Amino acid sequence: MLIRIQCCGLAVMLVLMYFYKSQKKLKLGTGRAYWQMFCTTFVSIALDIVSCMAIINMSVLPKIVVAIVCKTYLVSLMTMAVFMLSYVCSELYPVKAEFIRVMKLYFIAGTVCYALIYAAPISFFYDAEKQQLYTYGPSVLTTYAFAFMAIVLTVWKLATSWKKMSKSRRDAVLIGILIIFAAVVVQFINNSILLVGFASSISMVVSFIKLENPGYNIDTRTGLFNQNAFNLYATQLYENKNDFAIIDIVYDLSVSTNIKVDETLIEVMNYLSTLPNVLAFKSIGSEVFILTEDSASSELLLEKMRRRFAEGWGRDYDVVVKPYWIYVPDPHIAKNTFELVNLLRYVRQNSTELSETHLAVVDEALAAKLGEEKEISELIISALNDDRVEVYYQPIYSTKERIFTAAEALVRIRGEDGNIIPPGRFVKIAESNGLILKLGETVFRKVCEFICDNDLRSIGLRYIEVNLSVIQCGCENLADDYIRIMEQYNISSDMINFEITESASLDTKSVMLHNMQKLLDFGVNFSLDDFGTGQSNLNYIIDMPVEIVKFDREMTNAYFENSKAKYIMDAAMDMIHGMDLDIVSEGVETKEQLQIIEQLNISYVQGFYFSKPLPAREFLSFISERNLQ
Asked: What is the pLDDT of residues 68-79, one digit of tens each?
C-alpha cells in the first residue's frame, strides 16, 4: 500500500472539513485564508495519491501524462507553501486592499516557480517488489528550493512581526511549519518515504485546534456569536472602512413578566439569529449586539425589532420583555472596536434618554465627550505617576476673630505643558472611573505633608479642610487608610477637617457613618459641604456628626438675588445656629456681601473677595502677611 499514508492524510482532511463546514462562521479575512490553505492542502494530498497511481501505471500511460500529473502535484506543494504565507499575512495586513497588493507579489513569484517546475525535466522511480516509488530530477529540486524559500519567508514574517500577531496564530503557524519542514527533510533524504501530504493534514488540524475552530466564536447558551467574534468582525470592518450599524439590546429577563427565563431566552435568541442580513453577537451579561452592513436600512431594522418585542413572547404572547435599545447608525464615530464598546458602556451607564425612553441614539457629540473623558483619564493617570498633582489652599475668614483661621485644600493638576488644569475638568471623570480614590489619597498625603512641614498654628491656622468625594465615602477602608497616613506624618488629628457632601451621606450612609466614627474617635472633625444644593435636607445635619455647615456658593448668591431664597436661608440659619453649629458661607465676592454675612452671625466666610485658591507657598505668605500684622 504505497499510498496508505496519503490516504490517512486525506481521511483526516475529510473529517476536519466536516467539523469546519458544519458550524456557522463569520466572514473573516483570516478565516478565508485558512479555508484557501485547507483547500490547497486537500487538493495537494489528492494529487499526491493521483501521481503515485500514475507512476504505478506508467507502463500503460503516456510518459507525458505521468510527467504532467507529477509536476501538477509539485505545483500544488508550492501553492500550499504560498497559501501558508498568505495565512500569516491575513493577520499582518488586515486591510483587504493592502493584503491583496502584498499577495500579488508572492503569487507572481509563485507563477515563475510554476513555469520552472513544468519546464524542468522530471524522472520517476518505481519498484513493485520493494513497494517504493518517488520522483526526482530538476523539477523536484526546483520545488524543494522554492518551497524552502517560501517557508523561510514565512518564518521571517513571523519574526519581524512577532508582536503584531496573536499568540495563538504564531503558535499554530510555527508548529505547522515545523511539522511540514520535518516531513520535507525526511522525504528529501529518503524519497521513498512520502510524508509531506500527511504532515500537511496534521498542520491543518493544529491550526483548527489552536485558532480556526468556528465553535470558539459561538456562545454555547444562546447559539449566537460571542463577544470575541464581535471584536474580530467589527475590527475587520473598521480596518477596511466598511459601512455598518450597531443596535445594542440590553435586556433583563429576571424582571420581565410571566416569564420562564430559559424558554424565553431561546425564543428571543432564535428570532435575533434568523434576522436577514444581520449578525447577532451575545455580549457579556444581558446584552446582544446586532450588526448590519446595510446601514441605510438600519433604522427600519430597529423599528422592526422594537415592534416584535412589543408583541410579546411565549405561546400566548404574554411574556413581556422591555429591553433598552442603543442605536449607533455610524460606528465610525469611534476610532476602533475598543472605543465603540466603551462608548456603548458609557451610554448604558450615563444616558438619561435611555432611562427615560428605553432608546438612545449615539451620535458624534457623545463620542467626542467619551474621547475627552478618555483623554482626561489618561491625564490624571500620568499626573499621578509623574507627581503633577498639586494642592491649592483657599483661606477661610473668621468674622468674629477677623483673621484667617482655616483653609480648604483644593486639588489641581499641572499639565505636561506646565499649565494648571482646574478641577471642573477632571473631578467628575475621576469619580466615574474610580481614579478619585488614588487622587484623593494623593491630595490627603500632600496636605498632611504640608501640615507636617509648616507650623500653621503659629500663623493662626487651626485646621485644613479636605474634601471627601462620594466614591471615597463608599470605601470601607477609608478611615483606616487615612489614620495610617496621619500617623505616618505625625500630625495632630484636630488639624484635619473632612468635608462630606450631602449626596455622599445619602448614597453610602452606613459605610460613611462607620468611617466617620473611626475618624472622630481619632480626633478629626467634619463639615457638611455644599448645603443648599442637590438633595438638601436638614435631616442630614441631624444624622451626621458634623460641627460646621457650608453654604454653597449658589445658595449664598441666591440670598442676595432672590427674596424667596432669602427666607429659606434665614430659616436654615436659625435652625443650624439652634443646633450650636458653625456656618461657612462660600462664594463671597464683594465687601457688601461680607458686611451682610457678618450681620447674619455667620461664623466663617470663604470666597474671591479675600483670595482665590493659592499654591502652598503663596498661601503661607498671604496668611502670614494678614494674620501677623
From this structure: 999 998 898 888
pLDDT value for 319: 82
Chain centre distance of CA 57: 62
The rounded distance, in Å, linking the Cα atoms of 396 and 91 is: 62
Q: pLDDT at position 625, please?
A: 92
CB burial class (10 A; 0-12, 13-18, 19+) of residue 451?
buried
pLDDT at 1: 47
619, 450 contact by CB (below 8 A): no
Q: Which CATH number fits domain 388-544+583-627: 3.10.20.310, 3.90.1150.10, 3.40.718.10, 3.20.20.450?
A: 3.20.20.450
Tell me what pLDDT residue 496 has.
96
How confident is the model at residue 303, as a pLDDT? 94
**Domain 4-215, what architecture?**
Up-down Bundle (1.20)
From CA 23, how far away is CA 16, in angstroms rounded? 12
Strands 245-250 and 359-361 turn out to be unpaired
In this structure, are residues 434 and 471 in contact, taking their beta carbons and an 8 Å threshold? Answer: yes
CA 404 to chain centre: 48
Query: What CATH homologous superfamily does 218-362 map to?
Result: Reverse transcriptase/Diguanylate cyclase domain (3.30.70.270)
Let me know: does 388 contact 446? Beta carbons within 8 Å.
no
Nine-digit cell string for 80: 500550499
Task: For residue 546, give Cα distances in angstroms to 197, 486, 498.
Answer: 82, 20, 9
Nearby residues of 248 by Cβ (< 8 Å), 6 or more positions away: 283, 287, 288, 289, 290, 325, 326, 327, 328, 344, 347, 348
Report the C-alpha gap between 113 and 110 in whole angstroms.
5
Q: Are 317 and 268 in contact (CB under 8 A)?
A: no
pTM for the full predicted model: 0.65
**Cell digits of residue 571:** 430659616
Beginning with the edge strand found earlier in the chain, give each strand of the sheet holding 245-250 in spatial order: 279-282, 287-292, 245-250, 324-328, 359-361
Residues of the chain predicted below pLDDT 70: 1-2, 191-193, 253-261, 352, 502-508, 532-540, 629
Q: For CA atoms 527, 533, 538, 539, give the dihedral sign.
A: negative
What confidence tens digit (pLDDT) does each residue in 593-610 have? 898 888 888 999 999 999
Q: Distance between CA atoms of 106 and 113, rounded to whole angstroms?
A: 11
CA neighbor of 412 nearest in space, from 379, 451, 454: 379
H/E stretch holding 249 reads: strand 245-250
Q: Are 256 and 320 in contact (CB under 8 A)?
A: yes
Class of residue 9 by CB neighbours under 10 A (exposed 0-12, middle 13-18, buried 19+): buried
